[in-house]
Write a structure and sequence with these properties.
Elements lengths: L2 H8 L21 E7 L1 H4 L10 H10 L4 E5 L2 H6 L5 E3 L14 E3 L1 H14 L3 E5 L16 H17 L6 E5 L28 H15 L7 E2 L2 E2 L18 E6 L3 H10 L9 H16 L1 H22 L3 E3 L2 E2 L13 H17 L2 E4 L10 H4 L2 H13 L10 H6 L2
Parallel strand pairs: 1-2, 1-12, 2-5, 5-6, 6-7, 8-9, 9-10, 9-11, 10-12
Antiparallel strand pairs: 3-4
Length: 406
């Protein structure tokens, strides 16, 4: 699809946020439509959990038009003993990602078996890790950047040994670095620089040294650390990220205006309580519809800021967690309609910039989210837009673009 045709087709759904001082470059090409199956791909194996039949789940994903998945590779378990059976502690029971109770997993050979099934369907894999806690908490052994890099090296060596490395499109060494929930083995300097503290000298040293371990052996794979938080106009100038091959930014409407939406409705990311969801039931959709333009502007502004960051850094963008609310699920009084409206807006806005090479429709694109999953037409419409969206010509020389078309 030509850029002019794409913009015409989507203009009625989402208007481009004007940015003073520059215009978007004329792009060519197409991104991939990626979803996030994090640790659910292996944890949710009980009847009705959604991933107990990988063939079925992957066939349904392909039917919806997706051609890439971001999953947890559990590098800390590879670092200790990938063939051991581990008991994982529940991260939460208020959410639908992963298991709500203790669960046993053995990451090898399961990881390579799953990747092989994806390869059969021409589905690319992005590797990441949430560093899930097991009963022995072996993740805490990764107390140096060299160990973090070595853990990931063991993952890639295993995949390479089974002839599956071409399926890997990129590696995100840690989900939402430097959030303590995902990387408790890392203590920043200063220690209070947790969520969004990726720009400290200590953080940059860790990122650079860990990536260098991998790049020395597998230089053709793109590497990054994913970030979360409100994307501001000055983020591009916070730190030198030249060790990255891409920016993976997690962008939500609820992050805009310093988290005003969640603060207003009283949602506090409760892990083992329904109080936040009760407030979501009572107030979320009402607040959104009353100030729709305001909240949509907050999302569009972040997308524009991210695209500017990409332009100024020369790094392509990938977003696998997005665009409306961070947390949601099938529950009484929770409609998917307004969430899907925001997600559609985010997809079309990202497509227009030409700076994204990987675009997700939401972080609820998995079989456990029935209300979202069953709307096949909605998924196909958005994945079609993603896969026909143009890409900035300058990004064609990026390692990520070359990996995508490999």
């Amino acid at each position: 699809m030509k850029r002019r045709d794409f913009l015409t087709a989507t203009a009625g759904i989402a208007a481009t946020l004007p940015v003073a001082g520059f215009s978007w470059p004329v792009p060519v090409g197409s991104p991939i439509a990626i979803t996030m199956w994090e640790f659910s791909w292996i944890e949710r194996q009980w009847p009705g959990a959604g991933y107990e039949n990988w063939d079925l789940a992957l066939d349904e994903l392909a039917e919806r038009g997706y051609n890439a998945i971001r999953i947890d590779a559990f590098p800390h378990l590879f670092f200790t003993n990938p063939e051991k059976e581990y008991m994982l502690e529940p991260l939460w029971n208020a959410q639908e990602w992963g298991s709500p109770g203790p669960v046993k997993i053995k990451v090898f050979p399961a990881l390579n078996q799953f990747i092989a099934k994806c390869a059969q369907r021409n589905i690319k894999i992005g590797l990441s890790s949430w560093f899930r806690q097991d009963t022995d908490d072996v993740r805490m052994q990764l107390d140096t950047p060299a160990k973090l890099g070595t853990a990931w090296l063991k993952v890639l060596d295993s995949i390479h040994a089974d002839g599956l490395l071409d399926t890997i499109v990129y590696v995100d060494l840690c989900n939402e670095w430097t959030g303590p929930q995902w990387c408790p083995f890392f203590v920043n300097d200063p220690p209070q620089a947790t969520w969004g503290g990726w720009d400290t000298q200590k953080s940059r040293t860790w990122m650079e040294q860990a990536i260098s371990v991998l790049r020395s052996k597998y230089p053709d794979i793109p590497y990054t650390f994913s970030f979360t938080g409100e994307v501001s106009v000055n983020d591009w100038n916070r730190a030198d990220l030249s060790m990255f091959d891409l920016l993976e930014l997690h962008i939500w409407m609820t992050s805009s205006y310093k988290g005003e939406f969640y603060k207003t409705i009283g949602y506090r990311y409760d892990k083992f309580s329904d109080e936040g969801y009760k407030n979501m039931q009572l107030y979320a959709e009402k607040l959104y519809t009353e100030k729709r333009d305001y909240w949509q502007y907050g999302l569009k502004r972040q997308i524009t800021n991210a695209a500017e960051w990409s332009l100024k850094s020369g790094l392509p963008l990938g977003t696998t967690e997005c665009w409306g609310v961070v947390d949601y699920k099938d529950w009484p009084l929770l409609s998917w309609d307004w969430v899907k409206e925001l997600c559609s807006l985010g997809v079309y806005e990202a497509c227009k910039t030409g700076r994204w090479l990987m675009i997700s429709t939401s972080n609820f694109c998995g079989p456990q989210f029935t209300g979202m999953w069953r709307d096949i037409g909605w998924h196909r419409k958005l994945t079609s837009a993603i896969k026909s969206a143009p890409v900035d010509e300058a990004l064609k020389s990026s390692l990520l673009f070359k990996r995508i078309i490999k």
